[in-house]
Design brief:
The protein is α+β, with helices and mostly antiparallel strands and 537 residues long. The protein has 18 helices and 25 strands. A hairpin with a 4-residue loop joins strand 1 and strand 2. Strands 5-6-7 form a three-stranded antiparallel sheet. A three-stranded antiparallel sheet has the order 8-11-12, with no helix packed on it. The termini are far apart. The chain has a domain at 277-413. Helix 1 runs antiparallel to helix 15 and helix 2 packs parallel to helix 15. GO terms for molecular function: calcium ion binding; mannosyl-oligosaccharide 1,2-alpha-mannosidase activity. Its EC number is 3.2.1.-. Ca(2+) binds at residue 440. Residues 483-507 have a biased composition (Basic and acidic residues). Belongs to the glycosyl hydrolase 47 family.
Length: 537
Amino acid sequence: RERVRAMFYHAYEHYLESAFPYDELRPLTCDGQDTWGSFSLTLIDALDTLLILGNVSEFQRVVNVLQEGVDFDIDVNASVFETNIRVVGGLLSAHLLSRKAGVEVEAGWPCSGPLLRMAEEAARKLLPAFQTPTGMPYGTVNLLHGVNPGETPVTCTAGIGTFIVEFATLSHLTGDPVFEDVARKALKALWKNRSDIGLVGNHIDVITAKWVAQDAGIGAGVDSYFEYLVKGAILLQDKELMSMFLEYNKAIKNYTKFDDWYLWVQMYKGTVSMPVFQSLEAYWPGLQSLIGDVDNAMRTFLNYYTVWKQFGGLPEFYNIPQGYTVDKREGYPLRPELIESAMYLYRATRDPTLLELGRDAVESIEKISKVDCGFATIKDLRDHRLDNRMESFFLAETIKYLYLLFDPDNFIHNDGSDFDVVITPYGECVLNAGGYIFNTEAHPIDPAALHCCRKCKEEQWEVEDLMREFYSLKKTKKFTLKRQSEHGEGESAKDSEGAEKDGEKRNSKSSHSLLSCPSQSFNSKLAVLGQVFLDNS
C-alpha cells in the first residue's frame, strides 16, 4: 500500500510541476498536452483519489483551483463519453465527498454546491448530442456550439449506454429529470435494437439505428454499457435495468464464452469473428462478482492473470489460439481493468492470489514504465518501449484500485457500521455509509445521496406549502393532518377553513418498488399522533 501511495505522488507531483493546467502529463519530455478537451483533466480525475489516500489538505486546495480555473464555455470538440465519465463523474464524486474531506459546504449541500454546479454545467453541454431521432447520442459535441454540422452519426455502443450512473445522480441531486431521462432513453434504444439472438454490435448509426459494426463481445466499444446496466440497477434499485443485463448475460454465455474466455462473434449469427482477448474486457470478472457470480468470475480472472504474467501487463489485444499479442496492439497504457476485478474479487473471496496480482502490477509498472517525470504508457510489452503519455485514468483508476486492494480499512469499504447524518431542506439524510458505486472511471458515487434531494420538486413544494400554512395559521389555531396512507405518504395539511392547497395536486401518491423503502413525506415527519402543534409549547 505504501508503495502504491509513493507511485501516486511520483506521478501527481510531476503532473502539477510539468503539465498543469494541461489535461495530461507527457512523462518522457516532462511537459503537458490537452487530450480530451481543456479541463486540467488529470486534476479532476485524481481529486477523489487524494481523499482515498487521506490527503484532505490537497483535496481542499484542488477544489478551489478547479472552481477558479475550469471553464466549459470553450470552442472545443469533446468526446461525449469521455467528458461524462471523467469530468462529470469526477466532479460529482468530489462534490459528494467534499464534506468528508473537510471542505466547508454551503447550506443545502449535497443538493447544492459549486462542484455540483460545475458537473451540471458540463453535463448540459453534452445534452445537444442526445437530440437525435433515436435518442442515442452523437459521439462528439462542441462545447460552445453543440453538434457540428457534418458530425458522424456512428457511435460505439458504450458511447451510448454509459450515462445512467452520472446522469441519474445529477437528476436526483438537482431535481432536473432531463439528465436521467436522456440516459434511460439511450439505454432503451440499444435494448430495442439488439439482435434476435440477444446481442448488440459495436457501432450503430444514431440517426437510422442501423448497426455499422456487427461484432458482439464484452470488450472495447461495448464494455461499459453492460457495466452501467448492473451499476445503474444497484444505484437506482431498478429491476428493469438488471433484467436487461441478465438477458444479455445469457446470450453472452451462449454465444461468446469458450473455456472461460470471451470471444467476439457476429451479432446476428453468433459465429466467431475474432478469437481475441482485449485488455478492456478484464473488467468482466469484477462485474460478475457484483451480481454474485463469483466462481465464474474467478475462473475468467485466472485466465486473464496468465496473460499478465506472460508479459508483465495486458496487451490491448491477445490472440487466444496463438497465445500471443496481435500486430499493432502490443501496448499497455497502464489500464486498470484487471486490478479493478482483483479489488472486487478480493472483497468477495479474500483469496490471496488476488493480492499477488496486485503486487505483480506494482512491480511491473515500477520496473517498466516509471521514468523521472512520472509513469509512461508502455508502447510494446514485448520490448518495453515507452510512449510519451500518462493517461489521466492512471491516477483516477489504476492507482485507486491498487490502493483499495491493499487497504481493507479504507472508508470506501465501509459496511454501513459508520455513517454521517446530514440535515438538508428535505429532512435528515444518511451519507458515507458505504456501498459506493464506482463509475467506469472509478469515481465513487454514494448511493444514499440520491435520497437526500428529491429528483422531482414535489417534496420541495410540500415543504414550501407547509411553511406557508405554518405562517398563515400561526395567528389562528392548530390544524391536523389526515391519517397517513398505507404507503406512509401523508396528505398535504388542510387549514381550519378546509381550503385546498395547490401542493396537494402535486403531492400524488406513488407505489413503491419492492427494492426500496417508502420515504415518509416531510409533513408527516412533523406530525405527533396525527397533529402538528404550532404554539410555543
